[in-house]
Amino acid sequence: MTTTAPPSPAPAPLARVHGDLRTGPAYWWAGYRSMLAWHLSSLRLWLVLLAVVQILSGVGFVLGVALFFDDIPLQAALFVSTGVPVINLVMVGMILGPQLVADQKATQSFDFISSFPVPHTASALAWYTVCLIGGLPAVAVSLAVAVLRYDGLPLAITPDLAPALLLTAFAGTMLGYAIAHAITSPMTTRLLTQLLVFAMFGFTPILFPVSQMPSWLAAVNSALPFRHMADMVRAALTDLPSGDLASSYAVVGAWSVVCAILAVRALGRRR
What we know:
The protein is mainly alpha-helical. The chain has one domain (15-270). The chain is built from ten helices and no strands. The protein has helices at residues 25-42, 44-64, 74-106, 110-114, 120-149, 161-182, 186-203, 215-223, 225-237, 245-270. α3 runs parallel beside α6 (161-182).
């Protein structure tokens, strides 16, 4: 997946928020709004296409997995239906960001965009908001299709759904953001993101139970965020008994913080 954003005017100078002093909440908020407007303007057509592709891929997974069975077991239908939202959210943040930054580096526009007078954290959270816009519609549509396709699917919206989805999307976005800004070679960035997609589909228990994996691979996944993302979202979408969700939130939160720090530090070294 490769993107090339059309040129857009740079965000307005932000130093005027507090005279010449570029500090404070008002300055941060102005930077966030400016970068969000920049991204939405630059990707206005591509973002719509991305949302459509995510919806089609999510629906395709929900419906396509059933073709492997004459009569799909309810547990398999449940794992697929609750795992697809995780894939939708993670794919947007982990693929879109690195590919976009790789294109900016290849076209030599990355330094110009990095020079915008915007706080690093504001820039990162603006990009996170864009990834939510691209991923959340697919989550809603894929869940609706799952309910219509599979009779008796024990789905239930719980209060934990919002934090589970938001943290999952944040972790995926920050992972992609760190890869995008910490790796200087565009080709390496593209190859690494494709490798991560392959590993996520084939070797992480998102669409199937962890009990179906070899013990050593299950242990590896205990330290990675993807299994825990799926556990969080699945627990928030069902009334079924769940495992140690506190550990899942801790692992995903730790990955989010570490990746965000790496990305912001990489941005700071380039400015």
